[in-house]
């Protein structure tokens, strides 16, 4: 009968995969969350107008996206909001951060009068950094 000594090292190559599995799991979760957000944003049914000078990426840091749907309804973060609610929300955000930026994205079928009403709401709220959403000329409609 032979006994192994406690000092004997087992033969073969061993690799600890725990950290690899952790990193892969974090990547999968990140990709799922970012895909869900982009899918929700593309389901708003807003057809942005095209602009020859539209930047590819927004230079603004974490702007509030105010969307005007074809019927004139306003949505912020995929939630419908009334005019007074938008004014109050933006006023509160400007009080927290005076440089809060807002990006106004409107369907191209929305009357200009409705866009001006939303611009007035932003102005009444104290928003000073305002941008407009547009697609570059070679972009495909969503």
Distance linking N and C termini: 75 Å
What would the CATH topology of the domain at 64-132 be? Nucleotidyltransferase, domain 5
User: Uncertain spans, ≥5 residues at pLDDT below 50?
Assistant: none
Q: How many strands in all? A: 5
Order of helices and strands: HEEEHEHE
> Which CATH C-level class of the domain at 64-132 is it?
Alpha Beta
Bin the helical content: 25-40%
SS strand fraction: 5-15%
If you average the pLDDT, what whole number results?
Answer: 79
Class by SSE composition: alpha/beta
SS field, number of helical segments = 3
| CA-based gyration radius | 25 Å
Largest sheet: 5 strands, mixed
The shape, in one word, is elongated
Strand order of the largest sheet: 3-2-1-4-5
Instruction: Give the CATH architecture of the domain at 64-132.
Output: 2-Layer Sandwich
